[in-house]
Amino acid sequence: MTTIVNTHSGQLRGREKDGVLLFAGVPYAAPPVKGRRFRAAAPHEGWSGIRDARKFGPGAPQVATGGMADPVAVRWDEDCLTLNVQTPALDDAGRPVLFWIHGGAYRIGQGAMPWYNGARFCANGDIVTVTINYRLGALGFTDLSRFGAEFATSGVNGILDQITALEWVRENMSLINIY
Fold first, then answer.
1. What distance in Å separates the CA atoms of residue 96 and residue 129, rounded to the nearest whole number?
2. Where in the sequence is the domain holding 70, given as residue range(s)?
């Protein structure tokens, strides 16, 4: 079963599995590529039509270091500023939202890792879960401010990505009708 919801950026087509609705790979900011690389996240310009949100977006580029990141089949791309929303229903129940920022020492990880799957929380705890991807390693935390004012935030862009994702959630949860 697919479900369509509205956001400020446009419509999303999600999917249902085992009683939980998923809207995955939803861009919360403009792609941080080319001229936007090493700069603070900017608002996403949106899309026309219905965006497919049935598959997880790519994680940030990272070095496979062994341990928990290696067994996960992931796709990496600099255009990684996406989030995933899981909910038990589309209604006005006013559920709490669990906003999950993955760990990994700002070097590894992504919101689509199986152990961060919020489906059990949604099904058993009647809450909404949001997981995010944000820039890691050099792309998110290299301080290039000495090269000009346009790079003033470069050392904390990964953190600013997280804040931008929180702002997207605040602005869009009521539109999706799950908050």
1. 9
2. 2-176
pLDDT in tens, 55-65: 989 888 887 76
What is the domain count for the chain? 1
78-91: buried (b, 16+ CB within 10 Å) or exposed (e) per residue? bebbbbbbbbbbee
What pLDDT sits at residue 125?
Answer: 80
Domain containing residue 51: CATH number: 3.40.50.1820
| Region for 69 from its dihedrals, namely left if φ exceeds 0, alpha if ψ lies in -120 to 50, beta otherwise | alpha
Degrees to nearest 5, angle at CA 110 with 105 and 114? 115
Tell me the torsion sign for CA atoms 95, 15, 59, 45.
Answer: negative
pTM: 0.89
Average pLDDT over residues 133-152: 93
Q: Which two tokens stand for residue 179?
A: 């908050």
| Euclidean distance between CA atoms 175 and 126, whole angstroms | 19
Q: Cβ contacts of residue 58 below 8 Å, gap of 6+?
A: 74, 75, 76, 77, 79, 80, 82, 110, 133
